[in-house]
Amino acid sequence: MRARRTVPVAAAALLGAMLLGACGPSGSAAHDSPSGGPGSPTAATGSPTGSAAPSPSPGGSAAPSPSPGGATPGPAASPSTAPAPGRTVTASETLVRATRSGGFAGQAHTLIVKGDGSWTRLDARANPEGSGRLAPDRLAALTAALREADFARLPRFSKNATTVYDGFAFTVAHGGHEVAAEQGAEPPALARVLEALPPFTAN
User: Fold this and answer.
1) Which one of 25, 76, 120, 160 is separated from 171 by 20 to 30 angstroms, measured CA to CA?
2) pLDDT for 70-117, tens place per residue?
3) How many Å apart are CA 43 and CA 54, to the nearest integer?
């Protein structure tokens, strides 16, 4: 009787040892290796170095800062009193603005000529003191002189080598550029523009 009970007990002990070995740390089905099994935390959340989502910047925003040439508008530029070079002047726009100052009486007069040839003369306080309209041929001559002068290349200021007492000084603005010259020191191209203008005084 004792020998018959020994075989089942030994078999049970052997089966228990096998089960314990299968469920141990090296062979457990519930504890996969940390390198990529279906149940591993790495497979579920992804590797920290292989994540597709970019980390936020230190400022907390993932959007890049705008570049100098980006869509962020800068301060608005002040409107120009004259059209840009190369663009046709409309009838109501200023074609040229010229001021003559100095002389024996030390007076200043300004001429404003529009694109249609109409002009206005102002005194030193910008009060109107005369007006008129250039004939078509004179307007064409003034327009041609302005174009040939190429204001972008004219000297900003042309000064006499010696002081000329009671001389005039001219300031002329056209196409977004302004130049100044003393009487007798005007570049030839600017002198032609001054000659094509209406008179600075009524007399």
Assistant:
1) 76
2) 434 433 333 334 455 556 789 999 999 999 999 888 899 999 999 999
3) 19
